[in-house]
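Problem 3 from the worked examples.
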Amino acid sequence: MWISNILKTGVDMMLPKSVSKRLIKPRDHNAPHGDVGFEGHYTRMHMEDDSTFAFVTCWVNNAEKNPYLVHTSLTPGPIPNRDPDGHVIGWKREFFPKSLRKIQHEKENVPKTLQMQPFTIDVDGVGRYSMEQDEQTYDVWFRHPERPRDEYQVIAKLTDRIPWSPSRREALKGPESHLVHLGTLLPLHWYVFSMRSKAECLIKKNGKEILRLNGYAHQEKNWGQGFPKGWVWAQGTSKDGQKVLALAGGKILGGYAFLMGLRTPSMDWDIRPPWEQVDQSKMDHCAQASSLISTPNMDKDPHHR
């Protein structure tokens, strides 16, 4: 298996895309893999009032206990919204659902050149989200952690997605590019499904609408055998949605490596190993990314972890 993975990586690196695409069948790495140690999807919506809605699902194959985890949170902006009862609209909940179903859709309406695999993740007692080519939808419900009588529901729709690669010929390309073919030779993989999407969000409390918000969303995924002990992650979107940044990296396989994508009307940057491998004494690219995040034109809260 590892020999095949290395050969795929070499073919994708050395041969013209028109040739390598015929030899290597493209795979939608945003769709569930099923043959890995763990995987998880992460969505962050930065809304017009500077609030942040986050939704995470992940699962660990062959786990003895609690193989599924769901996180949902709404972090209020500087001026919090309040519901009709005067409560601040915000929460942080984590669940260990009993089941999580991965449902693949038929690809009838997806152009063959894109090869995207539409799917739905259905989480027992929490909700579901669906990934289609042109639209992604979320329907999540839960009880407030401090007021269990109050049931909240979040309904969101994401459209106008900007994928990592703007080229339709490389519609499934992610931050790793050819390195993704290394498979289990790398302990962890990262895929960005959307650098930026338009987000519409409706929040209900006990069945009644209490808030509507618009903003921008970021969608990504990790999979592999596990996370390193330390890592860096950052993501940001400008107020007008025209400037977006995604960065991830840390110590892996004995060295430091970073993946970064920056999209603006005048810049289209990709940084990835081995050409931009970062050593411990000179982390220029990480410093550049930090500078970009902190500029006045980018959001002040990149929601890091």
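Problem 4, a separate protein:
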Amino acid sequence: MVVSVGKKEDGNTTEVTNYEKEENRPYFGKEAKMWHLYVGDPSLRLSNYKDSLLKLLKDQSAKTVYDVACGLAIDSVMLVEEGFKVVTTDVDEDFLNKAREVKEKRPELDRDWQIGFGDWLDLSAAAVNHPPEGYDVILCIGNSFATLPDFEGEYRTSIKALENYKKLLKVGGMLIVDHYNYDYLLSNKTFPPFKNKNIFYTTDRIFNTKVEWVEKAGKVTSLIFRSDVDVSGTDLESDPEVKIKERNGNQVPTLRRNDIPFCPYTRDELTGLLKIVFGEGADQRVLPDFKLDAPEDYVPNYWVHCVVKS
């Protein structure tokens, strides 16, 4: 069972949530509960990249951060706790309700945290007040950007979203956007080595993961991930769709996650899109798994792109 324990850093208490406890799950849809299980321990997740992310923000002298894909609001909460003024949006009302619930329970977060609906293709209409001077940093992490379908083809939809991010950045502001290491997956037809852990999703409940390759004109345009979730010890065990499956020699109650399609950007492809939007001469670098100093032979699970608006 994944358990998240509060810890103290520099004398301040960092609150984290055990999402496997029913009382900590504010919405009741089966998929939402399964997502909580998939994310796993928030404190373990943050331990994988928090220090690097904060250093990037410090180097930017950042004060305002726009989290455009808040999910369970783990990053937004951490950033407010660290003293940043944070705006949080998502297109999923369940996730927004979770963020609002956290904010309601912790009134000390209220002053520096806005939460509202926001569509990447129309962020100017998001239900928040954007700072007129623009944001210091816009954050889109956790492989979120890859969930945007290429509606128009040739990455035109992706470019439109990136242009909208750029519009909301101040001059000198930074966009931090990541994606899974699809380079490795596309080249090797298998996942990156597990010795380099998944920095965002720390659960040990996912198994039987399979990938469907969707091609158009000889190019892989989408990857659809399918997997089983071990729901042992949760109220999902009583779900009528539960099936008993073998896992590591044991029979466990299992639910199948909904199919999740991703646009498989390679490192060079997203770098190229950012050059189109921010300019060839824009200050841009790519970090493996948020590591600021990684060995040359390091194979990451995620590529993290950092680009500055000039």
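Solution to problem 4. The two ends are 47 Å apart (CA to CA). The CA atoms of residues 284 and 307 lie 4 Å apart.
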